[in-house]
C-alpha cells in the first residue's frame, strides 16, 4: 500500500512532497488516539508534532461526541437563517479571551484569520503594517506579506508594499519604524514565535508596540494561532504580559484536532467595520455548525480540565529533562543544542538545518514524531498533547538521548 500511495501522491497531489516522503521512508498513517498515531503496519508512534493542533490529543472523546451529535442535527449552515451554534460558540470563545475582546468571526484556518486581521487593519485606516523578523503568519498572499522568510515570499513577489519588518525584540528599531508614518499603523506579532524556532518576545518589546499602536491610533494584532488556547501554559501567551490586543488570531487547537476551525476575535472598536456591514467579509464554510460544535467542546475541556496548567507543568518538566540529557553528554553537544520552551511549545535548536534533519530522522526511527520549524530550519519543535503519560515521557527522553549521539 505504501508504494501505491506514494505513486498516487506523485502523480496527482505533489511530486516534491512524495519525493521527500520516499527519501525519509515515512510510514503511512492509519489511525490515531490520544498522543499516539498507528501506521498501516500497526506500529505506534508518539505524536510530539502536529504543528500545535493536538493540544487535546487525537480524537478527544468529548469533542468527537459533540461533532457526531451535530452531524446528525445539521452539519452545515444555510447561511440565510440564524445559526444558534454561531451565537453560543462566539460567546464561549469570547468568555475565555482577554477583557475588552467582544466579537468573534470564525474562519477555517489560521491563514484565513490572518487575512481577516489584515483587512480589519485596512478598514480601520491603517495604511502601514509593521511585522517582526522570524515571524510566520501563513502562506496566503496577505499572510505571506507579513511572514518573514524569503524562501516563501520570493516566488510570489510583489507582495504587499506597505509592510516593514523590524528586528525581533529591538525596541529602538520598533520606535524608529513607527515614527516614519503619520497615518495609523498596525503591528502584527506572535507573542511566542512557533515557526520561528520557539522564541518568546520580550515584555518591553511587546508593551512598547502596544503603546505605539495606541499613540498612532492603529491596531495591535496578536497572532495566537499556535501559542494560544493553553499551548504555552496560559490560555493565551499574551496573558503573561497583561496586554489586551485590538485583534487576536486564533486557530490550531480551537477544534480539538477534529475538524478545521479558526477565528478572529477583536475589541468592539476594531470590529466596528464588520458590525457596520457584515457583508464586508464572509465565508461559505467558516463557522459551520459542525466546526463550532467541536470548538465549544474543546473550550469546555480546556477550562474544566485546567489544560493551561497541565501545559505549563509538563512543558517545564520536558525542558528540564532534555537539558539534563544534553548536559550529561559531551561538552560540544551541550554548546550546540539549545532548548527553548513555553509550556508545550518546545524548540530544540541544534545549530544547523542538517543536524535538525538528522535529529528528526533519528527520533522518527524511534517512533517519535516531531515538527520542523518553517521559519527556522535549525530548530526541531515538540508540540505534544497535554495528556502525556509517564511512560510516554520516558520514551521521549530515551529516544532523545539516543538521537543526540547521532547528530
Automatic annotation (TrEMBL):
<dbReference type="InterPro" id="IPR015421">
    <property type="entry name" value="PyrdxlP-dep_Trfase_major"/>
</dbReference>
<comment type="similarity">
    <text>Belongs to the class-III pyridoxal-phosphate-dependent aminotransferase family.</text>
</comment>
<dbReference type="GO" id="GO:0042802">
    <property type="term" value="F:identical protein binding"/>
</dbReference>
<keyword id="KW-0032">Aminotransferase</keyword>
<keyword id="KW-0663">Pyridoxal phosphate</keyword>
<dbReference type="InterPro" id="IPR015422">
    <property type="entry name" value="PyrdxlP-dep_Trfase_small"/>
</dbReference>
<dbReference type="InterPro" id="IPR005814">
    <property type="entry name" value="Aminotrans_3"/>
</dbReference>
<dbReference type="Pfam" id="PF00202">
    <property type="entry name" value="Aminotran_3"/>
</dbReference>
<dbReference type="GO" id="GO:0030170">
    <property type="term" value="F:pyridoxal phosphate binding"/>
</dbReference>
<protein>
    <recommendedName>
        <fullName>Aspartate aminotransferase family protein</fullName>
    </recommendedName>
</protein>
<dbReference type="InterPro" id="IPR049704">
    <property type="entry name" value="Aminotrans_3_PPA_site"/>
</dbReference>
<dbReference type="InterPro" id="IPR015424">
    <property type="entry name" value="PyrdxlP-dep_Trfase"/>
</dbReference>
<dbReference type="InterPro" id="IPR050103">
    <property type="entry name" value="Class-III_PLP-dep_AT"/>
</dbReference>
<dbReference type="GO" id="GO:0008483">
    <property type="term" value="F:transaminase activity"/>
</dbReference>
<keyword id="KW-0808">Transferase</keyword>
Amino acid at each position: 500500500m505504501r508504494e501505491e500511495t506514494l505513486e498516487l501522491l506523485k502523480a496527482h497531489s505533489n511530486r516534491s512532497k512524495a519525493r521527500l516522503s520516499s527519501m525519509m521512508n515515512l510510514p503511512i498513517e492509519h489511525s490515531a488516539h490520544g498522543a499516539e498515531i498507528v501506521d498501516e503496519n500497526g506500529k505506534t508512534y508518539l505524536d510530539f508534532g502536529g504543528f500545535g493542533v493536538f493540544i487535546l490529543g487525537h480524537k478527544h472523546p468529548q469533542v468527537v461526541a459533540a461533532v457526531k451529535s451535530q452531524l446528525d442535527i445539521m452539519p452545515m449552515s444555510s447561511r440565510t437563517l440564524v445559526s444558534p451554534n454561531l451565537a453560543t460558540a462566539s460567546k464561549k470563545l469570547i468568555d475565555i479571551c482577554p477583557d475588552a475582546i467582544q466579537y468573534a468571526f470564525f474562519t477555517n484556518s489560521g491563514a484565513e484569520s490572518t487575512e481577516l486581521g489584515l483587512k480589519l487593519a485596512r478598514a480601520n485606516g491603517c495604511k502601514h503594517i509593521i511585522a517582526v523578523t522570524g515571524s510566520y503568519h501563513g502562506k496566503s498572499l496577505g499572510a505571506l506579506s507579513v511572514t518573514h522568510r524569503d524562501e516563501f515570499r520570493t516566488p510570489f513577489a510583489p507582495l504587499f508594499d506597505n509592510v516593514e519588518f523590524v528586528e525581533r525584540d529591538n525596541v529602538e528599531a520598533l520606535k524608529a519604524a513607527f515614527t516614519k508614518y503619520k497615518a495609523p499603523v498596525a503591528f502584527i506579532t506572535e507573542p511566542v514565535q512557533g515557526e520561528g524556532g520557539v522564541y518568546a518576545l520580550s515584555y518591553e518589546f511587546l508593551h512598547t508596540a502596544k503603546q505605539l499602536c495606541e499613540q498612532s491610533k492603529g491596531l495591535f494584532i496578536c497572532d495566537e494561532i499556535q501559542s494560544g488556547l493553553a499551548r504555552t501554559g496560559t490560555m493565551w501567551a499574551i496573558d503573561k504580559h497583561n496586554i489586551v490586543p485590538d485583534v487576536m488570531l486564533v486557530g490550531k487547537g480551537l477544534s480539538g484536532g477534529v475538524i478545521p476551525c479558526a477565528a478572529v476575535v477583536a475589541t468592539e472598536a476594531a470590529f466596528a467595520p464588520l458590525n457596520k456591514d457584515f457583508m464586508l467579509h464572509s465565508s461559505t464554510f467558516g463557522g459551520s455548525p459542525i466546526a463550532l460544535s467541536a470548538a465549544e467542546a474543546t473550550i469546555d475541556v480546556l477550562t474544566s480540565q485546567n489544560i493551561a496548567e497541565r501545559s505549563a507543568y509538563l512543558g517545564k518538566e520536558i525542558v528540564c529533562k532534555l537539558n539534563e540529557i544534553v548536559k550529561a553528554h559531551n561538552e560540544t553537544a551541550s554548546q550546540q543544542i539549545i532548548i527553548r520552551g513555553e509550556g508545550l511549545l518546545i524548540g530544540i535548536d541544534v545549530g544547523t538545518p542538517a543536524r535538525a534533519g538528522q535529529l528528526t530522522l533519528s527520533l522518527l526511527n524511534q517512533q517519535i514524531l516531531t515538527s520542523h520549524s518553517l521559519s527556522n530550519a535549525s530548530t526541531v519543535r515538540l508540540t505534544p498533547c497535554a495528556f502525556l503519560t509517564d511512560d510516554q515521557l520516558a520514551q521521549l527522553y530515551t529516544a532523545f538521548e539516543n538521537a543526540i549521539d547521532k547528530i
